[in-house]
Amino acid sequence: MPATQPLAPDHLRLGLRANWAQFSLLVLINAFVGGMVGIERTVLPLLAEAEFGLASKTAILSFIASFGIVKAIANLFAGRLSDRFGRKRVLIAGWIIGLPVPLIIIFAPSWNWIVLANVLLGVNQGLCWSTTVIMKIDLAGSQQRGLAMGLNEAAGYLAVSAAAFGTGYLATTYALRPHPFVLGVVIAIAGLASSILFTRETREHAVLEARAHANAQPAVQPSFAHILLLTSWKDRALFAVSQAGMVNNLNDGMAWGLFPLYFALNGLSIGEASILTAIYPAVWGIGQLGAGALSDRVGRKPLIVLGMLVQAGGIFLFILTATFWMWALGSALLGLGTALVYPTLLAAIGDVAHPTWRASAVGVYRLWRDGGYAIGALLAGSVADALGLRWAIGTVGGITCLAGIIAAAVMYETLPERRQGKPL
Predict the structure, then answer these.
(1) At 218, is the pLDDT very low, low, confident or very high (cuts 50, 70, 90)?
(2) Which end of the chain, N or C, is more open, meaning fewer C-beta atoms within 10 Å of its C-beta?
(3) Going by CATH, does the domain composed of 20-202+223-410 fall within 1.20.1250.20?
(4) Secondary structure of residue 200 in the 3-state scheme
(5) Is the pLDDT of residue 3 over 50?
(6) How far is the C-alpha of 41 from the C-alpha of 165, rounded, in Å?
(7) Whole-structure pTM over 0.85, yes or no?
């Protein structure tokens, strides 16, 4: 912990009940964060072909690649910056950077402007989503960490689903631009205003939790390079979590960029495609409400392994079947698998990392996780251009299955009540 870190005031308490008002506000803010990325899920791949004339799938998915690379780097810095300068400042900075995104998309004269908008969106998502995660972990304490992450991710991805469906409806009723993206302007203003006016700094709650750790073992502040190596490779659980997170977003990047094109190729309307596009994050969001709390009881590893395998099964349904309702089932399974994995991975990071360097560890994990967007976009686009959309989808499904097998073989259980050995 830096020497300038303030001591936690005596009146602070950990737990969701003690901090329900601030926690609820952060849940709402994360819904705004999710809504910002949701406005692109249905419309933008179609916009690439219809208005900008892009035929190459790799070129179309360039907006996801730029988003993923920048978001991954922003995640890394968000954790470190929030440890040094406070969570609230980083959250506000992320919203300021995100404000121009929907306006750039509305008025973009070329596809390069869309890519630029997604660079800014990547910074917005990296700073804002990472910070709301860290702030909720700070407030919740160790006993309800899985539940806290479930609520956080549920709010974010239910908002992704609602925005994806809403923009699909607006595009069907009016046009691909500008109407769907006016929604983004409203979301960005609401997110910035609520972050400035109502959020409170939570870094002192992490200091309070660190006191309890200090009673069990002295707090050791590792270097950032050591945290990077520990989270990426040296600790078996953190490595398993990082690779699973990366592959999770690899398949999400594929779904984001290729599914709307796959649905259109198979004759579905924009309205039908928007329903399928919305089912996935909706089930993902709702499922996390139970998955995060369940991981507090049964452990993190079983849900991570099962979730990756269920995701793979859902992806394979898209290439093994050819009806709307089977694809709806595939979307639901992909969402269910992701719901089992997403809050559990974050909770596992919180289990292993000491409060004094936990935000930095979350940043490293999210570097790898959101790097999966870029890898997924480039891989899926290249395979689609070379072999077709079905091969691209199937390849990502196979990689997702492999990630679940790796987690099963490598990871140890991190839930404190079930874990063997001492925390780091």
Answers:
(1) very low
(2) N
(3) yes
(4) coil
(5) no
(6) 9
(7) no
